[in-house]
Amino acid sequence: MAPRYSGRCSMPPSRKRPAVTEYDSRAQEVLRANRELAAYFKGRRTEREARSALKIIKAFVKARERMPVERRPPLPAAANLSRTGKPPAHARPRRRAPVRRKRSPVVVGEVRASSSGAPFNTREPGEPQHDT
User: Fold this and answer.
1) Structurally, how many domains does the chain consist of?
2) How far is CA 85 from CA 51, 93, 112, in A?
3) Which of 37 and 86 is assigned the larger pLDDT?
4) Among 1, 30, 118, 128, which one is least packed by beta carbons within 10 Å?
5) 43 lies in some domain
6) Cβ 37 vs Cβ 54: under 8 Å
7) Does residue 24 lie in a domain region?
8) Helices and strands: H and E segment counts in the chain
9) Looking at residues 12-36, what average pLDDT do you find?
10) What CA–CA distance (Å, rounded) separates 20 from 92?
């Protein structure tokens, strides 16, 4: 028979999730709100969503200002930088794909307009005129 665990938790002690503090959960929420705000400026979110994201960020900043300076943990984005040494993938600038331009077909003997508005012919004077 398997040993029973006493206490309130139904999971064995080794399988418990790490305790997430209120500050950590708020920090994750601020990072999400920051992405929402960035998406708004790229035209992917509505103004209403951007306003709610701003409210989350402002509340986080106000709560942080009330903490004593020596007890303040690093800002959420700064914590990501300190772990890896480089910014997260979503914060790095993206390389743009090279623009492929379609070549315009070359037409021989094309009639073009001059700056005065009168058409002029591009063929040589002794060359016969061909209808295309």
Assistant:
1) 1
2) 32, 16, 60
3) 37
4) 1
5) yes
6) yes
7) yes
8) 3, 2
9) 79
10) 27
Whether residue 49 has pLDDT greater than 70:
yes
Asked if 8 contacts 35 with a C-beta cutoff of 8 angstroms, the reply is no
- Please report where in the chains the tokens 């016969």 appear, as a residue: 128
Amino acid in position 38 = A
- Backbone φ, ψ for residue 119 (5° rounding): -70, 150
Q: Which residues pair with 120 in a beta bridge?
A: 112
Residue 13 half-sphere exposure toward CB, CA atoms < 13 A: 5
Q: How far apart are CA 44 and CA 18, in angstroms?
A: 34
List the structure tokens of 25: 């959960």
Q: Which domain holds residue 81?
A: 19-91
The mean pLDDT value of the chain amounts to 75
Q: Higher-confidence residue: 61 or 11?
A: 61
Give the pLDDT confidence of 54-89 residue by residue, as tens digits.
999 999 999 999 999 999 888 887 766 555 666 666
Q: How far is CA 21 from CA 25, 63, 120, in A?
A: 6, 15, 79
Name the CA dihedral angle for 49, 50, 52, 56, rounded to a multiple of 10 degrees: 140
